[in-house]
Amino acid sequence: MARKPLMAGNWKMNNTISEAVVLTQEISNHFERDWDESVDVLICPPYVDLKPVWTVLDFDKTGIGVAAQNVYWEQKGAYTGEISVPMIKEIGCVASIVGHSERRELFGETNEDVNRKVKALTDADMFAIVCVGESLAIRDEGTTLDYVCAQVRAAFAGIDVFKARDCVVAYEPIWAIGTGRTATPEQAEEVCAAIRTTIADLYDEDTAEGMRVLYGGSMNPGNVAALLEMPNIDGGLIGGASLDASSFITLIEACI
Ligand code: PEP
After folding, report:
1. Based on CB atoms within 10 Å of each CB, which residue in 25, 131, 208, 218 is the most buried?
2. Residues 6+ apart with CB under 8 A from 2
3. 69 near 100, Cβ under 8 Å?
4. 175 alpha carbon to ligand 1 midpoint, in Å?
């Protein structure tokens, strides 16, 4: 089954509203209007930038979508500082990243939290970009596949197949995020293939074949082609290189 690639730019905590508008406009100016037939593109800016970024993309009719970097699972209430699924949905988001390693490591997000977020998003007919990935210590121990596949199982626990189908898994080895050190295409492929096998095991072959599995971790214009050549890598979750319009566009073009 041919899967349409997805390139998602995770801006992390970068860009004020005015900076976000400038960067989005630059991306839009260079994004050819027929590219969206071959590749799905998402920009994942900080919460405050979501509406302005969406407004530029919508006005320009780019076909590029917006997604949040995180979301809380409750609908509303006394959860100071949190943002709910209905809030990001109304802004125009189609998805949210969940379980990014920075959230897991810096903010104590657990597998159970990730699962609640996947459930909240899919219940609202949105999709989750579920991040999984091992630390260097786990890789050196030789338990990467067990660790990552357990994260995938936990994220999708109790999620109905019809809701899981549209979700995306992003394999992001922690040692490759923001470090300039990329997993080799073979290392990334081995884990992405194991993720797909886990999805087949949890659901069925069709669901596994249809689900997009992304690679993330210092993806850049120099390594994108070799990574995308791998049969189980269906695009990228891109941090640093998505903050520069020309690099992000080059990465998107690699999918055309
Ligand atoms: C990320 O934050 O998801 C990421 C992959 O970052 P970078 O591309 O900068 O390694």
Report:
1. 131
2. none
3. yes
4. 10
Is the pLDDT at 1 greater than 80? The verdict is no
Inter-residue contact 131 to 99 (CB < 8 Å): yes
DSSP 3: P
Instruction: Report the alpha-carbon distance of residue 135 to residue 71 in Å, rounded.
Output: 24
Residue ranges of domains in the chain: 101-227
Atom 2 of ligand 1, residue of closest alpha carbon: 239
Q: Whose CA is nearest to atom 3 of ligand 1?
A: 239
CB of 39 closer than 8 Å to CB of 3: no
- Mapping DSSP to helix (H, G, I), strand (E, B) and coil, where does residue 40 land? strand
From 102, 134, 172, 189, active-site residue: 172
Question: Domain 101-227 falls in which CATH fold?
Answer: TIM Barrel (3.20.20)
Helix (H) / strand (E) containing 22: helix 17-30
Predicted TM-score (pTM) of the model is 0.97
Confidence of residue 42 (pLDDT cuts 50, 70, 90): very high
